[in-house]
Amino acid sequence: MKKINYLILFLAIFSSLALQAQKINSPYSRYGLGLLHGENTHTRLMGMGGLAIGVANPTLINPGNAASYAVYDSTSFLFDIGLNANITGEATNYQSETSNYVALTYIMFGFPVTKWWKIGMGMLPYSQIGYDVKIFIPVENFSKVVNAIEGDGGMNQFFIGNAFTIGENLRVGVDAAYLFGKGERSSKVYFPDSLEIFGTKATSNTKGGDFILDYGVQYDVHFSKNNVLTLGAIYSNQWNMNAKIEYLSYTFTGGYGDAVEHLKDTIAYSPEEKGKIVIPQRVGVGFTYRQNNIWMAGVDFEWQNWDKFTAFGKSDSLNNAWRIAVGGEYSPKHTSISPLRKRIIYRAGFRYVDSYLTIFKHPINEYGISFGLTFPMRRSRTTIDLGFEVGKRGTKVDGLIQETFFNMSLGFSIHESWFHKRRYQ
Asked: Best label site of 24, 34, 276, 338, fewest CB within 10 Å?
């Protein structure tokens, strides 16, 4: 009963915080599916730059490689939940502003079915859309004309993963994920200095949902009893996600400042049209090297051919994207009665992302430097995890926007023994 109460308490707290979450604010989320999260959202993985493909830890639910679930202890139940806070500064050569948001990022469970078959499942974000940009256009005989573009939404994924141990060193796994979400985008042009000219507004609402599969494999190479090299690989083939889109354009008055928007005439309307959103294939490789359970370091490389992306038969001029992550962790030698500083696990990492965006011939890339800590609870295998990341996205060249971001992730990992057989009745 005590274990169930833990779950209810944490779910209540984090769900309450999630309901108060604010949306992101990044003009670069206007394109494609928005800003991508991937599967490496766990607080511990974030603290290592998103390192995940070669990570195999029996106390960690790692959706970055489905094969990793196979290392769970055969008597354990794992429950992980995480919250992310973000502060982003957007700047051009002429002005700057700051935005922030808080969001529940993941809820995950892991448990054994047999000694050789383990399961991981949970909810993760896949992408986010959030922007509010006003462009002031000089036009003869008007002091200004404004083009306001806005967007909101994103996609989430609910996954169930199965992992299997084959022999002593080989693990394979597959995540079956249901990808779902919606995106709302609008663009309006209005004349704030004239009451006689109607503005125009175009809106599109897209909804989608479908199943995708991610495959993973890991193999351990033992150089000695306590020195292990883990090789990992992941793959997801191209998927055609079912989607619907609704489009409306019309003329209006008001709608800016404190004025209420009044629709005047409909220009075009297209009710829900069915179509496909093509999510391209993805492949990644990585490795980690662990020594004496004291330190671990590794590298990931991931690639996805986003130039194959289309939505309702139309491309978005996206580029192939790749990501590299380098990171590791260190745990000092300790015992259960050692002081806290010796029981803390320390992490650090770096990532670089060559994103799928190029604007005005300038690649919109990003990088981040991260740090992390895990605080073990006394007389328990439950931990409190912290992750921090600072980084940059974009450039100020040719009037573009450069974003400087700070992410902080707070996670709770509950690791309990739920599957012991009773010795006495």
From this structure: 338
How crowded is the C-beta side of 122, counted as CA atoms within 13 Å? 28
Sign of torsion, CA 183 130 156 357? Answer: positive
Stated pTM of the model: 0.88
Superfamily per CATH, domain 2-417:
Outer membrane protein transport protein (OMPP1/FadL/TodX) (2.40.160.60)
pLDDT digits (tens, 9 = 90+) for 145-173: 888 899 999 999 999 999 999 989 999 99
User: Look-up: residue for tokens 């179509």?
Assistant: 275
The domain spans of the chain are: 2-417
Q: What percent of the chain has pLDDT over 70?
A: 89
Q: Hunting for tokens 């949970």 — which residue is that?
A: 122
- For residue 6, how far is the Cα from the chain centroid? 26
Pairwise CA distance, residues 289 & 51, whole Å: 12
Tokens of 120: 């991981």
Nearest Cα neighbor of 92 from 405, 390, 397 is 397
The pLDDT tens digits for 84-114 are 999 999 998 888 889 888 888 999 999 999 9
- Label residue 372 exposed, middle or buried (CB < 10 Å: 0-12, 13-18, 19+): buried
Q: What are the pLDDT digits (tens) for 323-379?
A: 999 999 999 876 666 666 778 999 999 999 999 999 988 999 999 999 999 998 877
How far is the C-alpha of 52 from the C-alpha of 118, rounded, in Å? Answer: 18
Residues 6+ apart with CB under 8 A from 192: 144, 146, 256, 257
Q: Which amino acid is at 358?
A: T
Nearest to 179 by CA among 236, 222, 102, 261: 236
Rounded CA separation 351/398 (Å): 26
pLDDT at 17 over 70: no
With residue 45 as reference, give the H or E element that holds it.
helix 43-46
* Three-state secondary-structure class, residue 10: helix
The C-alpha atoms of residue 390 and residue 368 are separated, in whole angstroms, by 5
Question: Tokens 């939404």 label which residue?
Answer: 153
Q: In 3D, which of 313, 247, 308, 307 has the Cα closest to residue 276?
A: 313
